[in-house]
């Protein structure tokens, strides 16, 4: 019966076993994973847009090649994640429909504009830095297909993170104009990046169950703290200033403590009212329409191949 199955399921997770697609799982485990993995996949795809906007304006061939490779990686991450979600019994079409209709969420961070080239550098270092903290944790998660997708994604994200850091450090010791640009980018991306880890644990309704079933292995505040402890000293060493007057180092715990996060802005952005939400969804809808003929051609080709194989 359900009680026994649940007990066995939880015992497997406690032993560190991975849950695989055909295995028994509570309906709520399935629902939570579909929610998280599909939102994650949407974030990868919407996440191509702010950086993609700079491909034609990259300042050198080297930077253009790096950016092209990065944006292409993100398309690939979306693919692995949509496939991982499909193993739970939802179709790609249902997920894409939820994104395009505005029903599904995606990361708050991609609803801000990329105003200068330095934004691309800051996204690489900070946004990908936060993503890696979150995804290294998810690589340990109890659902096999998600955890394996995360291992590969983290390896690629590490390259993204390094190229962002390299660029920020270069601009931080560059001309006065470069220094102004990179500082301005940091000022604008700092708070949205801290919000990426999700609301404080006290305001995070999903965390307790996700922890219990090993979908998350750390809380939102733990991830945010790891991000701060790594990045704050490095940003300060680079001669940049962090736009948080209350930021301080706590000797006792060895943690960097941030001031109040503007959560009103977060809830507005994830509710669809951020500066670029409308624009991002329009771009995804347009891409979906413009790609329709490719999907139809592939389907027709696959059907013909199948018919030929049957002959
Ligand atoms: N943005 O109970 P909570 C990337 C929502 S892509 C938007 O704490 P949970 C990259 C949350 O969904 C990075 N919404 O939720 C790509 C929930 O609403 P619903 C994307 C957020 O699930 C391209 C409500 O707030 N990574 O790195 O326990 C280029 C309550 O929150 C956000 C992932 O998606 C947010 N930031 O924890 C470069 C990782 N935070 O669903 C880089 C997978 C919270 O009830 N997801 N909400 O309507 C996760 O790890 C977790 O879902 C979160 C949130 C930590 C994000």
Mean pLDDT: 97
CATH fold category name: Ferritin
Enumerate the spans where pLDDT stays under 50 for 5 or more consecutive residues: none
Main sheet specs: 2 strands, antiparallel
What is the level-2 CATH architecture name? Answer: Up-down Bundle
**Strands in their spatial order, largest beta sheet:** 1-2
DSSP, total strands: 2
What is the approximate shape? Answer: globular
Helix segment tally: 13
Cα-atom radius of gyration: 21 Å
The separation of the N and C termini measures: 47 Å
Number of domains: 1
The CATH class label is: Mainly Alpha
The ordered string of helix (H) and strand (E) elements is HHHHHHHHHHEEHHH
What is the CATH H-level superfamily? Ferritin, core subunit, four-helix bundle
Beta-strand portion reads: under 5%
Bound molecules: benzoyl coenzyme A
Helix residue percentage: 55-70%
Q: Please state the structural category.
A: mainly alpha
In short:
The chain is 68% helix and 2% strand.
Provide a descriptive summary of the structure in words:
It is a single chain. This protein is mostly helical and 311 residues long. The protein has a single domain, classed as Ferritin, core subunit, four-helix bundle (Ferritin), CATH 1.20.1260.10. Helix content is 68%, strand content 2%. It has a two-stranded antiparallel ribbon. Strand 1 (248-250) and strand 2 (255-257) form a beta hairpin. The radius of gyration is 21 Å and the shape is globular. The chain starts with a helix and ends with a helix. The mean pLDDT is 97. It binds benzoyl coenzyme A (BYC). It holds the Pfam family PaaA_PaaC. GO terms for molecular function: phenylacetyl-CoA 1,2-epoxidase activity. InterPro entries: Aromatic_CoA_ox/epox, Ferritin-like, Ferritin-like_SF, PaaA, PaaA_PaaC. One of its GO terms (biological process) is phenylacetate catabolic process.
């Amino acid at each position: 019966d359900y009680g026994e199955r649940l007990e066995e399921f939880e015992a497997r997770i406690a032993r560190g076993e991975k849950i695989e697609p055909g295995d028994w799982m509570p309906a709520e485990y399935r629902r939570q994973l579909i929610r998280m993995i599909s939102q994650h996949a949407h974030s990868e795809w919407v996440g191509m847009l702010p950086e993609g906007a700079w491909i034609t304006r990259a300042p050198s061939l080297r930077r253009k090649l790096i950016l092209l490779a990065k944006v292409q990686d993100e398309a690939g991450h979306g693919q692995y994640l949509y496939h991982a979600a499909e193993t739970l019994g939802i179709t790609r079409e249902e997920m894409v429909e939820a994104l395009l209709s505005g029903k599904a969420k995606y990361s708050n961070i991609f609803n801000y504009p990329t105003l200068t080239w330095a934004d691309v550098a800051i996204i690489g270092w900070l946004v990908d830095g936060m993503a890696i903290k979150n995804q290294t944790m998810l690589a340990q998660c109890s659902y096999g297909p998600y955890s394996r997708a995360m291992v590969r994604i983290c390896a690629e994200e590490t390259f993204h993170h390094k190229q962002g850091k390299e660029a920020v450090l270069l601009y931080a010791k560059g001309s006065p104009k470069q220094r102004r640009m990179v500082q301005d980018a940091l000022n604008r991306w700092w708070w949205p990046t801290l919000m990426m880890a999700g609301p404080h644990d006290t305001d995070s309704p999903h965390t307790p169950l996700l922890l219990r079933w090993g979908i998350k292995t750390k809380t939102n505040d733990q991830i945010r703290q790891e991000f701060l402890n790594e990045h704050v000293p490095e940003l300060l060493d680079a001669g940049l200033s962090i736009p948080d007057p209350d930021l301080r180092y706590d000797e006792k715990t060895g943690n960097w403590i941030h001031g109040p996060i503007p959560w009103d802005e977060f809830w507005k952005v994830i509710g669809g009212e951020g500066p670029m939400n409308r624009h991002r969804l329009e771009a995804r809808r347009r891409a979906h329409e413009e790609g329709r003929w490719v999907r139809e051609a592939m389907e027709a080709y696959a059907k013909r191949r199948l018919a030929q194989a049957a002959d």
